[in-house]
Amino acid sequence: MQSAHTRDTNEKLANLDNTTKETVQRIDKVNNKITDLREQRMRDPDTLGDKAFKLAFPALIGMVAGKAFQSVWNLVTNKVHPSPNDDEADRKQGLLMSVLFAAASAAFSTVVTTYSDKLTQSIVGRLQRKRK
Prior knowledge:
Transmembrane segments: 52-73, 93-116
Protein name: DUF4235 domain-containing protein
Helix content: over 70%
Pfam families: DUF4235
Region (Disordered): 1-21
Keywords: Membrane, Transmembrane, Transmembrane helix
């Protein structure tokens, strides 16, 4: 017959073995996740420069296009309403013109962004082919 002390020690060792197994399983799980992430990064053909270019170029093109659109809009609206005598009529149409400007600007920005993204991807793809 086992003494109470021996039983307690055996239970503690069994619990320790279970805790150790769980800890090793958790460490293995983390290790596998790290390995998967490393493999994903190694398979990714984009370098840091490619990623920076993909981020910066469309943003820069979008800013320039937005400013160009705003300048053209201002030129057109100044030609349509050049005199300050019709300011009251302009104020009444202000909301409509603001909505029209927002819609036209959003449509223009969408088109520019779509094509600049495609251009950027094309340029990066060409650079990656040259690297290989």
